[in-house]
Known about the structure:
The protein has five helices and ten strands; from the N terminus they run H-H-H-E-E-E-E-E-H-E-H-E-E-E-E.
Amino acid sequence: GKLKTRSSHLTEGINKRMKAALVCLVVMAYLLADSSTAQGSTFEFKCGVEELKDDFISRMDNVEGKLNNVEGKLEGKLDELQVQHQDLQGKIDRLATVVDGKLDDLKQLLEKVITSQYQPVDGGWTQWGKWSASGSYFEQTRGRTCSNPAPSNGGSSCTGESDEKEACTGGRCKGEKLYTSDGYSFFKTPVPYGTSMEHPVVSKTCIGAGMKSVCSFPKGCISNSDSCRMTPLSTTTCGWSTMHPLSKLICNGKQAPECPKLEGMFTDFNNPPRGEYGIVGGKYAWAEIKTDVYHVSKKETPYFAYCVL
């Protein structure tokens, strides 16, 4: 805008000077034509044409310099814009590469989802669970489930049995070892589910696991059964604290009802009709005298026999 304005001013100035020079030339021609003036006299009449030419050339040179300066700036700006364009094009290309990669990942994910939703999946067995007491004194059982993976979309179910039983001969159903000393190993042996804790269930459970029941009292006490085994952990009096010696060793001196490891465990107690003597819910428990209602070992509330090997 400034360049256009300056060009307009320059043109206007040149036009004025040219008009003045033209008037001057007309006057000079008139004078020369006048014979009375021209005869016998000399005079110098200048119309400023040379000055006008020089000024015009100077102004044009100035304009050309400014135009060259503007052209240089425009070329520099053009180069800068080309660099910016190349940089922007590079960013666009990189973004397009990333988008293409994400689209490929999304396509693979969708294919995987569609495949997993509609392709038949055959079922698979989990690992076998731990052995536990069954409904027999001489058997233990373990189970597994068809959930690794579970069959879906019409896939086939698992083949084979979900439960497995095994004989406990040779003492393989001992259960949890609680303490060992002086050649004696004391166990918390699971009682078969559905078994009422009537005497002599503890003795039968221990024998079925290849062991003996622990004699709760010293020799001569009528509450000891004929099949129990005397140990260093048998009590020294014919009282009721039948598992205190063991609880003091494995529960930092606590009484048997306060020892979590003894929860649900019963001793061999020959005292009909009250049944075996054990700990249930943190308290001593046996069958009610009047009703003869005995505790029953269940999967959700299992009971155990106090055995020794």
